[in-house]
Give the backbone structure.
Amino acid sequence: PASTPAAPAGNYPDHNVEGMPALSPTAVDGAVVEWLVKEGDMIEEGSGIAEIQTDKSVVTWTSTDEGYVAKLLVPAGPDNKLAVGTPLAVFVDDAKDVAAFK
């Protein structure tokens, strides 16, 4: 998924907000079945972030970058369908920045 750098709002450090990925060519929505990370976790490029239910199957959403999970914005739930692009999680580059999103 492509990161969208978010403009610092208030006193938040630099961060990226990741939206619901389009994990299939026909996907218009999806649901986070299970988070594979928790707030504060360090992620590496290629590591799984969440299991996403698409219109066809459950697919692992993987990181395209390294960083830290600052905030999970939606609860996991197979019935919680969200449009592609809906903000799911906030990521930061530095572990010390995670606390700003608590």
Remarks:
- The longest strand covers residues 29-35.
- The chain is about 0% helix and 40% strand.
- The radius of gyration is 13 Å.
